[in-house]
Each structure stands twice: as structure tokens, then as C-alpha cells.
Amino acid sequence: MQLLANYRDRQQAIRVFWLLGIYPFFCVTSVINLCVPRAAILVDFVNTIYFSICCLKFMHITQFYFGGRKQMLEYLQTNGIKFPLQSPPACCCCPCLPNVAPSRSNIIKIYLLLLQFVIAPPLVSFIITVVAIDSASLAVATKEMESVFVLVRTISTSLAFYGLILIFRVSRGPLSGQSITAKFGLMKLAILFGHIQILVFNILGAFSVINCDQLWSSASKAAWINAACLAPEMACLFLLARRVYSRDDRPMSEYALIGESGSFPRAGSQASVLFGQ
Fold first, then answer.
1. What is the pLDDT of residues 217-233, one digit of tens each?
2. Which end of the chain has less Cβ packing within 10 Å, N or C?
């Protein structure tokens, strides 16, 4: 809370609070999963909802640094910056795709890519949670639905990540002074550890690659191992995130007014090298 007291804009402080909360939230839920293994499905459901909301918050933070959605659109159009559709992970194998000019409809479409992440995975996860409550149908239905959930979550995560990358690629130049590369890098690591890692362990558990024993099924053991890895990973990321968000970065217009644009870090700064963008 002392860190957020440095932020002059209340709405921006709330957004940063959500993003900083990713790491302790995942850490705490992972510890709960370690202590209560049967809560794995419910923990995954709660984590999915929280992180999907944070993806929208990150887009709002990016727009704030431009001065708002309207100012962001005007800046991109004035400087001829376009959205590169041939971006990972969804379309990295399609170099024939064009660069799309920024428009209100295109920004709304990118927003919808993030919005579906708030709806689809939590909805499927909720259905699995409800089915898992009925112990009579747990053995029959949950395993089949888990495969469906892995598929839906993979597609939904890829689309949401695609939307974030589109926003980042048009923002990393103009917003280099607001450490947008480091902040996006933290989101990438959160997706890697909080979602892709879980998908990998879910697949290993579904196909019994992780051996079961008398007390643990393959899926339960995979979820427990994932939680054991996730807790220290998120604890380390929180220390890095606190450093990255320690400064109250202001919109571009305010920096221009006080003549601080020349102090912005260049694209080859330490943050850019660290996250490889």
C-alpha cells in the first residue's frame, strides 16, 4: 500500500494494485493447494478469473500512458504505427498477414480478444467445479471435461496473449519511458508460469505421464507438483514486479509538458534486453 501511495491517479493505482496482486494471489492459492490438494479445481477456477481481469487492467494501463483510448488512437494514426497481425502465438506462422491500420473498431476487436479470456476459461472451469462437487459423477465426467477445459483454455489463452502482444508491439516505442517492455515481460512470465505451466501439468496428468499411487491420482499429483513450483516462482516475480511498478509513470502528454521526454530509456535498455523484446 505504501508503494501505491506514490500514484497520483487513483484509477491507475487501482490497476497497478490488481497487477501487483497477481503474484501474491497465485502464491497464496498455490500454498492452499499444497495444504488441501482436493481444492485444486477450485483454486484453478479462482486463479483463472483473477488473471483474466488483470489482462484487461494491463490494456487499460497502456491506454492511460497514451492519455486515454482516444489519444492512443490519434497518436498511432498520426505516426503511422500499425498493428502487425503476423504476431505470436496465434499468427506467427502467417507472414502473409498485413499490418492493420489503427482504428476504433480494431482496438475494440483487440479488447474483445482479452474480454473472451474473462468469460470462456472461467465458465468451463466453473462447470468442471460443479461436476466435481458430485462425487458420483467425478470419476466419469470430470476426466472427459478436463480434456475439453485444457483445449478451451489453450485456445483462449493464445488469443488473449495475441491481443496483448498486438498492443505491446505498437506501444513499446512510444511508451519506452514508462517501462512498458518490463511490464509486458512480467505479464508474459505470469502467463508462462500461471497458465502455460498449468496446461503442461494438466496434460501430463491427463495422460498419466506422472505416475499415480495409492493416495494420489495422476491428475491430483500433477496439480500438487504444479502448485509446489508455482509458489516460489510467483514469490520471486513479485519482488521484480514491485521494482518495476515502483515509479508513478505518467501519460506521454505530461512528460512532454515538463520536458522529460529526453530522459526516456532507449529500446536497448536493460529492461528490453531482459525480456528479449
1. 787 888 889 999 999 99
2. N
